[in-house]
Amino acid sequence: MIRSFFQRKFYVLTSLYTFTVFVSNDSFLPAIPDIAHYFGFADGDYGTVQLGVSAFLWLTMAFQLIAGPLSDRFGRRPTLLLGALLFIVANSMVTFAPSVGWFLFWRAVTGLSICAIFAAGFATINEYYTNVDAIKALGLSATIVIFAPMVGPVIGLALMKIGGWKFTFWANSLFMVFIFALLHRYMPETRKLAENGSTPSLRQNIWAIFKMSRERDFLLISISSAFSGAAFLVWITAGVSMLCSNLGLSEAEFVLYNIPVMLSLMLGNFLSAYITKDITKTVYRMMFCSSSLIPLFVFLGYIQVHNQLSSEVTIFTHLSAPILFIVPMALFSFFRGILNPPLTQFILNKQNTNKGSASSFMSFIGIIGSITGATVAASLSGAGNNAYYYTISTFILFALFFFLLAERSAKRNLLTS
């Protein structure tokens, strides 16, 4: 019975893999003071150890374009199993680090396990399941990524109370050993070989990514997805400034008001499979639903720059200003949550072969979009909150623009073929 369940729904295992990897990046946060003290830093001097959070992503983007070709060359199973094994070794070696430099090094190596999720996990889901089941699986994975930062620090604090900061890392490694065993036993190999049964070399698979970069439809739709992600990253990066600095909320109030935004994203991911009957139509609708919020974000920026919410916009005088600003962001999060799984499936469906490379390349572009959103938001510090809302509007508009360009290109190719 267990064997039958995991063989039919192996995406539960890939989701557990995803959960463990992302929880590991948040579970050691409560232990940062203890880790800093362990490496000889003075009380309050946590900056270097805190780099362990970002170090987790240092190598991810660099190796993302290698993981996909590895998945296409050697298979989905070996790639994901290698990612799990790499996590187990690197995450365990963190506890043996003789210096903070080695601590950061092993944290960076641990982050490489993320590459396997995109290169092998997403590709396997796309190849193995029908569109509806694939969207359900991708939605579950996306929900877990959002949920992990919420529960990670709580789990980490509990583990630290049991056995100290090193036990936090050992517990994550042990759980990954359990997942590794299940993946080894139940994960199918879905990589499709060429018609003659041959397997392209690693060099040919790497070259396939460069070919994808010249495929107009695939590239444009991936860029569209990246801009949508960039819009959300502006909120993630600058939300504290947008609500605390301008509206006078405390950090605790910001956390409270941020809950609807994150829950909306999770709800959208969860409902995506049940809402999506036709992938193309769902992607169209959610793109336009997101774009319909642009005037509202621009209006909020106007209110911010003129500071006339109470005096001139009388229709809103009985509403709490923070709620007025949270609602459109929660709506955008909900639309993005619904959009993400079918859009991922939509992009991967455009590639008949090299799904691993396609998934990695799509994720690589998405990471660039996230970095762009976070960097732009950080650079706007002190420019006024209206700049944040205008930036969100601009990124959403770019997402729609590149999506329409991709669809126009696809229709043109269809007519000429």
TrEMBL record:
Keywords in alphabetical order: Cell membrane, Membrane, Transmembrane, Transmembrane helix
Record's bilayer topology term: Multi-pass membrane protein
Chief location category: membrane
Sequence ranges assigned to domain Major facilitator superfamily (MFS) profile in this UniProt record: 10-410
GO CC entries: plasma membrane
Matches recorded under Pfam families: MFS_1 (PF07690)
Membrane-spanning ranges: 47-67, 79-98, 104-125, 137-159, 165-183, 218-243, 255-276, 283-303, 315-339, 360-381, 387-406
Keyword Membrane included in the entry's annotation: yes
SUPFAM superfamilies from the UniProt entry: MFS general substrate transporter (SSF103473)
Record localization: Cell membrane
InterPro entries hit by this protein: MFS, MFS_dom, MFS_Efflux_Transporters, MFS_trans_sf, Sugar_transporter_CS
GO-annotated molecular function: transmembrane transporter activity
This protein's record includes keyword Translocase: no
UniProt cross-references to PANTHER family, sorted A to Z: CHLORAMPHENICOL EFFLUX PUMP RV0191, PURINE EFFLUX PUMP PBUE
Protein's name according to its UniProt entry: Putative multidrug resistance protein
Organism annotation: Vibrio halioticoli NBRC 102217
